[in-house]
Amino acid sequence: MSSPRILDFECHDIRFPTSDDLDGSDAMHQDPDYSAAYVILRTDQDGLEGHGLTFTIGRGNDIVRDACALLASMCVGQSLHEITDDFAAFWRRLTSDSQLRWLGPEKGVLHLATAAVVNAVWDLWAKHENKPLWKLVCDLEPEELLQTIDWRYLSDAITKDEALEILRANKATMQERERALLERGYPAYTTSAGWLGYDDEKIRRLCLEGIAEGWTHFKIKVGADLEDDKRRCRVVRETIGNERTLMVDANQRWDVGEAIAWMRELAEFRPLWIEEPTSPDDALGHAAIAKSLAPLGIGVATGEQCQNRVIFKQLLQAGAISFCQIDSCRLGGPNEILAVLLLAKKFGVPVCPHAGGVGLCEYVNHLVFIDALYVAGETEGRVAEYVDHLHEHFIDPCVVSDAHYMAPTAPGYSITMKRESLDAYRYPDGAIWRRRVERD
Amino acid sequence: MSSPRILDFECHDIRFPTSDDLDGSDAMHQDPDYSAAYVILRTDQDGLEGHGLTFTIGRGNDIVRDACALLASMCVGQSLHEITDDFAAFWRRLTSDSQLRWLGPEKGVLHLATAAVVNAVWDLWAKHENKPLWKLVCDLEPEELLQTIDWRYLSDAITKDEALEILRANKATMQERERALLERGYPAYTTSAGWLGYDDEKIRRLCLEGIAEGWTHFKIKVGADLEDDKRRCRVVRETIGNERTLMVDANQRWDVGEAIAWMRELAEFRPLWIEEPTSPDDALGHAAIAKSLAPLGIGVATGEQCQNRVIFKQLLQAGAISFCQIDSCRLGGPNEILAVLLLAKKFGVPVCPHAGGVGLCEYVNHLVFIDALYVAGETEGRVAEYVDHLHEHFIDPCVVSDAHYMAPTAPGYSITMKRESLDAYRYPDGAIWRRRVERD
């Protein structure tokens, strides 16, 4: 089987009008239209393509798509093996282009676009190997896995040798753990009940439905109004009872002191964590909040808008987080995510990935199995986000059963969208959007 | 004089082919084409426009221009006073748009674009008031100045009351300090001699020319090769003598441990500071480097790629920097720069702005006078970067005399480019670029 060569690419601006129902609304993002900058890498092998997307929430998705095109053009002409034989070098070419890096470096629009393109390369690799991505990664030797990672800026927190030791230990026991994990799945939690735009009755109903489906962890949005938050936390706690778990999420709304004061008021509802209490850039701020809330039994969680491994490194070094919430589209693909999983393992912090949006659950489904089998080596104290939105647009959507993610079985990274969805939701010329423009 | 209303805007992708001569080359940016995403806000008052730019180094400048257009469209229909009467609210609308913020927040492409648009608004305001920008700001009452700043995420480091106290004290003594400062100018240093692409003979010649022009501080690029760095540091130190000052700049090339080891090797040349030793996102890494290098008398400087006030806040809280290098296009305009100047004052760290590129010296010329007169209240231990490139394209270029920036006198923010420069360097259709395409 010869190595496929990347011949050309497509980049699309795909948007779903989710703001119609306030799905996904929170204290900072009142009206998200879940969107994807979508990349297809086409090869010289019949029917073999790599698909990747990065998630945004609407306006500006075209800018990310254009950035994807700049980066995807760097792949054209390369064979898959030229890339994967020194994947870290390829990753650094994308993230450290001598002119483009000024626009980041490794953050914001450029890094979101890096995720889409790098995810597409991994999807191509996994499809070519005829394996689901998690299995491709778990089948790599420890040294092979490590050579996908750009180690720049990490050595003060973790060395390659330490990472190698972690991976070797887990590789040795992987097989015996794999069977049980595949059978039970990876524990998940639901955010579907708690969007800020929902009224109490809807929250109560969704919690009851969640309990009936087997969910044990429920997350709700807070941060806009304290009395409102107390009422909503009470509704949830009363509905889910004391034996189930509540988490709350402020989406960066607060200053440091404000976060501490606000959470003292919500402590009576015993949330497991406060998520994104303040700026995602503020490692020291999160550390101050963590220190103040630890005596109340409330952990700090963040990560969905943490731009790169350097921020995660500092959050971990500073003892700022009890839960590490990687995002599959904000970090620059599995290469960088693996680095953060290793950092979290080194510092003993459980990884509880952010998901939802569009496609994030599909990605995360692979990442949690990689973490459980190869890096963390366990699922204890871990729970991955799940939101039941927009899965119908994917050819191999994630499967969640009894509140657990089940291991993907189809080759690739599970992110290939149906062609009819790409066509219908393309902005602004797909049928869904054309119809809206005519209606307005 | 009624308040002008913003009617529409232009956004341009302007690029200068500076990579031809390796001007601006360093260990991470080998071939910059100094570029500007350029914004013109047009008003209903005859001939009155606000001009602003953000600086990039080439590829991707079109993406930043498109982001500028998204943000500039939010200004259309507003009167200048509607904006400036609650400037912080306007700033937050730009930086916290409920969908666009996902692409940052407050970092990378979106925040660079924020700078261009916000700078254009300030230019418009200063032109309307018929004052150079520094004078407009210095004429504001302390309370008026503070209401331009978005205080979110700052209160754990500085309160509004503390800021008010700083400004009131300086306001009281401003007049007596202003005369002397205007006469002497603000101290500057030159980077023109030390780009990584220059050979020893060119460095020596440029240092000698610099000495003849009155320069006392010389900065060179390091970080690509240790032996090469030693040789080049020796050339500079031998040429400028012991009575003048050398600074070195690694442009983020190193890991934390590597930075410490490398700088121990260069300590014999007694650099005042090591600039950008590692990732601009790594406050804790800079703090570790600062701690190790302090006994050698070497300070740590960073800032030109620090994305926002939250990163500067942490650098200052962690004791990570001895010199705070704000960038006039990376931070979101004077509103956010004022916040960082106040933070630096609170923590007792001198601000030594980054400049060079295209237009940065023009902006910085205003910012240093604001700092010296209103925030720091002094110039002691401060020195602002100056590079003698591309000033000929501006209608009111900065004036540097005897190694000092002289106070701008023309109304506005000094960033208005000549129309013929905009036309000639517009990418890819301006005459300069069309000619290249034909030649290639």
What would the keywords be for this entry?
Enolase-like, domain 1; homodimer; 440 residues; nine-stranded mixed β-sheet; 2 domains; 16 helices; three-stranded antiparallel β-sheet; alpha/beta; TIM Barrel
Question: Any idea what the CATH superfamily of the largest domain in chain A is called?
Answer: Enolase-like C-terminal domain
Q: From the alpha-carbon coordinates, what is the Rg of chain A to the nearest angstrom?
A: 21 Å
Question: Remind me, CATH topology of the largest domain in chain A?
Answer: TIM Barrel
Number of strands of chain A: 12
- DSSP helix count of chain A? 16
Structural class of chain A: alpha/beta
**Helix share of residues of chain A?**
40-55%
What order do the helices and strands come in, and which of them pair?
The structure is a homodimer.
Chain A: E1 6-15, E2 35-43, E3 49-56, H1 61-72, H2 80-84, H3 87-95, H4 108-129, H5 133-139, H6 142-146, H7 160-184, E4 186-194, H8 200-213, E5 217-221, H9 226-240, E6 245-249, H10 256-266, E7 271-275, H11 283-293, E8 299-302, H12 309-317, E9 323-324, H13 334-347, H14 360-375, E10 384-386, E11 400-401, E12 404-405, H15 419-425, H16 431-439
Helix pairs in contact in A: 1-4, 5-14, 7-14, 8-9, 10-11, 11-12, 12-13
